[in-house]
Write a structure and sequence with these properties.
oxidoreductase; alpha/beta; Rossmann fold; 2 domains; about 325 residues; about 35% helix; 13 strands; globular; 6-stranded mixed β-sheet
Length: about 325
């Protein structure tokens, strides 16, 4: 069997080919799955997609009409997939329910410290042999308060690093994590967390209940000198409201690895054509904001685990087995 993989980065391609070697042929494409590219999948029983794929109703119908029966998504998130339509079309859907939480947690801290210590500005200056310290004043994390929104595996890993810094730990989640409590975390209402934290990091999934969790009211309740980090899903933050607060001169820094309208932008080279997203264009102009292109998961360890799980998902599908990774089982 030949499997068609969409949205494969150049670093991923040899890893995917090696993982499937001896099992199945795999054809890797760098284009992302959407309405325009869906017809390419005609004749492929199994396809693999990235988190930025469009797996809405129209695309799923095109896939089913072309003979696709199984979609193996190479990510934990699946808010880009219309699962109800997939089930109606008898399309088996799987994801990767777990990979290294340290990849994302460590990157969230990378963003936090980069905006705190003005690393991008400092590095840019020294390339021009400008070694002044003006405008580079940061602050110690030790003794300050961190607010961890979502304390699952990634939130726990982030919390352990915060504990190492010697920070006061506040957490918010629907269920308390005993490991975080053991580290000294106090679980509080999100309103208190927003008001008291010096650093807020988001680690919850994007659900109808968390869409724009960080809205205008939440942003206004935060400290003027807070650091806000989002390495989870872009839709957690109302970006237009965030831009308004930044224009008012609030926040010590903001680190974003995700953006709510990133589909069609992230993972692509737009340097020559630019973007017509006015909100994103304004966001990246602020000197205290760092935007990266959804790369928090992108380590050899995490990507390797994602690919291995994807191979297993395909193997399970062919053997008519199920697992915790299956979102829509084989009919």
């Amino acid at each position: 069997m030949e499997i068609l993989a969409f949205g494969v980065q150049s670093d991923e391609k040899p890893l995917i080919e090696k993982a499937f070697q001896g099992l199945h042929e795999v054809r890797c494409l760098d284009v992302f799955l959407n309405r325009d590219t869906a017809p390419i999948a005609a004749g492929y029983e199994v396809i693999s997609t990235s988190v930025n794929a469009d797996l809405g109703s129209k695309v799923l119908q095109t896939l089913a009409a072309g003979g696709t029966q199984m979609i193996a998504q190479r990510s934990t998130g699946f808010n880009n997939i219309d699962l109800d339509v997939a089930e109606r079309l008898a399309l088996t859907v799987s994801r990767v329910s777990y990979y290294s939480p340290y990849s994302v947690a460590e990157f969230a801290w990378t963003l936090a410290m980069a905006v705190n210590r003005r690393v991008i500005r400092a590095a840019s200056r020294t390339r021009d042999f400008d070694f002044r310290l003006d405008g580079l004043l940061g602050r110690d994390m030790h003794g300050r308060t961190v607010g961890v929104v979502g304390t699952g595996k990634i939130g726990e890993a982030f919390t352990r690093i915060a504990h190492g810094f010697g920070m006061k730990l506040l957490g918010w989640d629907v269920v308390e994590n005993p490991a975080c409590v053991e580290l000294g975390m106090e679980y509080v209402e999100k309103e208190r967390l927003f008001a008291e934290a010096d650093l807020i990091s988001l680690h919850v999934p994007l659900l109808p209940t968390t869409q724009h969790l960080i809205n205008e009211a939440a942003l206004k309740s935060m400290k003027d000198d807070v650091i806000l980090v989002n390495s989870s899903r872009g839709g957690l933050i109302d970006t237009a409201a965030l831009v308004t607060e930044l224009r008012a001169g609030r926040f010590l820094g903001v680190g974003l690895d995700v953006y709510e309208a990133e589909a069609g932008l992230f993972f692509l080279d737009k340097s020559l054509e630019g973007v017509d997203d006015d909100t994103l264009a304004r966001l990246v102009t602020f000197p205290n904001v760092i935007v990266t292109s959804h790369q928090a998961y992108y380590t050899e360890d995490a990507v390797g685990q994602i690919i291995d799980a994807t191979v297993q998902n395909v193997t399970d599908y062919l053997a008519r087995r199920t697992s915790e990774n299956v979102l829509v089982p084989r009919s």
